[in-house]
Amino acid sequence: MMSAVAGDPAAVEAAPSPARSRLGRTRERVAGCLFVAPSLIHFLIFTVYLMLSSLVISTWHWDLLTPHRSAGLYNYTTLLFHDPIFRTAFRNTLLLAVFTVGPGMILGLLLAMVVNTRLRGISIFRAAYFLPVVVPTVATAIIFRWIYNPDVGVLNWFLGLFGVQHHDWLGSPSTALPAIAAMSVWQSLGWNMTFFLVGLQAIPEHLYEAAKIDGAGPWTRFRRITWPLLTPMTFFILVTSTIGSLQGGFDSVYLMTQGGPGYSTYTNSFYLYSQAFRYFHYGYAAAYAWVLFAVIALATFLQFRFLAKRINYDFA
Amino acid sequence: MLDLPILIAAPRTVHGRIAWRPDGMTAREKQMTRTGTRTDWRIPFIVAVLAALGLAGCTGGSSGSGAKASGTVVMAEPGDNPGDIALRNQLAAAFMKSHPRIKVQILVVPATNYDQKVQTMIAGGQPPDIFESGDVQIANIAAKDFALNLTPYIHRDHYSLSDFYPQVISGLTYGKKLIGLTDNWDTQVMYYNDTLFKKAGVAPPNAGWTWGDFVSAARKLTAGSGTGKTYGAVFDNWFASYFDQMWSWGGDPYPGHGTQCGYDSHAAVSAFDSIVSLYKSGVSPTPSQFANQGAEQLFLSGHIGMYLGAGRWAAYDMRDVKRFDWKVAPIPQGPVGRANFFHLSMFAIARTSRNPQAAWEFLKYMVSAEGIKQGLAADQGIPSRPSIANSAAFRDNPFNVKHDTVQPLLASLPTARRAPYLPNFNEIQDAADAQLDALWGLTQTPAQVLPKVCQHVGPLLKAGGIPGGG
Question: What is the rounded distance in angstroms from the CA atom of residue A302 to the CA atom of residue A120?
């Protein structure tokens, strides 16, 4: 089988007959199919089949335990037009994306530029900045809940030094979502930093040397060399962060606020989870998941449509 | 007779035509259903023989049917309490000695979302034979009918329920179906720091205390400021606690058997006013102040005089406290008397259990006098059988005597209130709590917030969740 895949140089030189050639190509095709079969079967069963199942379930009223009833498009129309909590959760999710994606990328880039040096021991700093990524969200949430504690939290203590009055960060509807976003930014900083660092280190050094000879200052070098050549990585981080933030927000919301106060920190994933696993509205939750999928697909399409042209892939 | 479905459970189809219902209890369900035209004389014959055997077993009473039960019983045990898991294994081992034909397997299921996991197992066709549930979930189980009705088993075995507290049996009965049994019950009580009371020279709580007595004592106990402040009380603002308050003020969160919203009643507003005034006057830490560590942990710090918001399970949590003496008292009476949420857990058999007879035998053992006695040390509630709850072994236990953890609960039993019958309780309560957050944040008054609760909860009560069921 391996020879069929790798080809047989001797046979090629000998110019095989058309029949043998066809046989060889068939064997190659079969071998190729066999190689991809495990992954393909897994994909068909655990992705395609389940996605199609969820599409069917989204047209049901179903609580798992009693027989399902057909609902047609009822779950979709209820969700989109008659569910105020869905609108709140959707708005909160978008806000969370705005609060986390932009600041997370800017801070990640700044951090990457800071640690992009050849100092001794810099890898320790890089590892330290990456650490929040591998700390479990449960631990991070507990730490931040104490940081935000209205009485003994370090944030209020610090702000108190400047005369700012104590504030209930997670208990106030106006600050609970930004407080969760701040934690998410801190969590994702190391991730963004690592990708930007990879991007920075891929930029050829001679470009900077040439720019310096031409008299370009640090800002010009950043604007004319670093930023344009980082666009592939920036685009990648933007797309993945946007998808992640539109899908996400569950762990932190579940652990920090349970959606409260009121519905001020309800996100799509939290509300979807509640509908499925707390209220047993599986049809409704499936419809919700499909709406969410459509929104994320649209956001990703728009990003590709309008931003892909501005990416510079030419430096290599 | 119950051996019949067990024995015929495996061959659900014969020649792909004859279907059997293995889990049935009624005569109709025990009948085989013919959907084809071919007749096989052997099947009625086998059924007749097996039925005769089953009937013979039935005449022997519980011991007779139990002796015939065999096979494996899987019990789904929530994995949050090592003491409970050890107890369940201990009970299983003891049971298997006396019932060598039955193997009990304790399946530890993560406690987070335990109910959902059990329901998923049932829906997936792999039900545990026995599962635990309780309180507000019981209505959901009854409505969806996924717990086996135990009443026919009780009648068949002439199983006596007379040694159970009547409130336990009525609490686990929906319609005419008994859907579970339990080894213990619990209800809301008040914990107090006896050391603080003695230090402040304040008379300790007693069963006759009113809400006015409670507030007065809380004010006397409150002292200091900042992080070293001693609070007279802490009121844990979860639904069981504020239901108690509403009931004892003459209100009801979900009157009309769970069909109406009662949060906006005058009595409910007064009840919530009484809670909020505790926070505003500074005799209780506010919900945001105890959100991180919880009210119970705050009480354990020794800086809280009284703690409202838990049942007897908290006594189990407090067993290692050495810094101060604590005791239990009934919760204070409101204007119309006392009301305390009845925390009722249960063991239930899945309706689709593959071995209901053997499961029934093990369930009976767990709630038998012998089974309950084995769990007294780890038990977090009051034994479900008065004969044990009133026994010297339980009441005179030094821990119970020192902390008075029995009598206040027994005194509270007549005023215990069952959880509202709301099959979609989670959704309704989430909607209510989302509005109540404004109250706990002290940004709005009960008169402003409670009508909004009914605006959001009312449609859910009528529709049963997402209109049509979602």
Answer: 43
Handedness of CA B446, B449, B452, B457 (dihedral sign): negative
Which pair of tokens denotes residue B107? 């399946």
Q: pLDDT band at B9, cuts 50/70/90?
A: very low
Amino acid at A184: S
Q: Which residues contact B332 (CB under 8 A, 6 or more apart)?
A: B190, B205, B209, B210, B211, B213, B214, B338
pLDDT tens-place string over residues A233-284: 999 999 999 988 888 789 999 999 999 899 999 999 999 999 998 888 999 9
- Total beta-carbon pairs less than 8 A apart between chain A and chain B: 91
C-alpha B433/C-alpha B253 separation (Å) is 12
Alpha-carbon span A187 to A184, nearest angstrom: 5
Burial B229-246 (b: 16+ CB within 10 A, else e): ebbbbbbbbbbbbbbbbb
The CA distances from residue A163 to A159, A166, A176, in Å, are 7, 9, 21
Candidates B387, B319, B11, B25; CA nearest to B183 is B387
Cβ atoms within 10 A of the Cβ of B161, count? 14
Q: How far is CA B79 from CA A269, B60, B75, B261, in A?
A: 26, 37, 12, 35
Query: Does the predicted interface ipTM exceed a cut of 0.85?
Result: no
3-state SS class at A258 = coil
Question: CA B385 → CA B168, B185, B359, B410, distances in Å?
Answer: 9, 10, 21, 12
Q: What residues in chain A have per-residue pLDDT under 70? A: 1-16, 313-316
Element (H, E) at B106: strand B102-109
Report the distance separating Cα B383 and Cα B370, nearest Å.
12
Strand B416-417, strand B340-343: pairing: parallel
Q: Which residues of chain A have a CB within 8 Å of the CB of B288? A: 150, 168, 170-171
Which amino acid appears at position A1 of this protein? M
CA gap B410, B404 in Å, rounded: 11
- Tell me which of A68, A92, A278, A284 to substitute to probe the interface with B (most B C-beta atoms closer than 10 Å): A278
Q: How far apart are CA A186 and CA B28, in angstroms?
A: 63
- Peptide linkage before A261 cis (omega within 30 of 0): yes
Amino acid at B63: S
Task: Dihedral sign for Cα A189, A194, A197, A199, please.
Answer: negative
pTM of the shown model: 0.82
Report the C-alpha gap between B243 and B258 in whole angstroms: 13
| Residue A314 near chain B (CB below 8 Å) | no
The SS3 assignment for B463 reads helix
Collect all residues from B whose CB is shorter than 8 A from any CB in A.
113, 116, 119-120, 122-123, 144-146, 227, 287-289, 291-292, 424, 426-427, 430, 433-435, 437-438, 440-441, 465-470
The rounded distance, in Å, linking the Cα atoms of B409 and B328 is: 9
Residues B309 and B35: their CA atoms lie apart, in Å, by 57
CB-based contact B68:B3 (threshold 8 Å) = yes
What are A124-158's pLDDT values in tens digits? Answer: 988 888 999 999 999 999 999 999 998 889 999 99
Beta-sheet pairing, B345-349 with B130-134: antiparallel
Q: Which of B113, B438, B467 is opposite residue A78, by nearest beta carbon? A: B467
Instruction: Tell me which chain B residues have a C-beta less than 8 angstroms from the C-beta of A255.
Output: none
Cα four-point dihedral sign B386, B388, B391, B395? negative
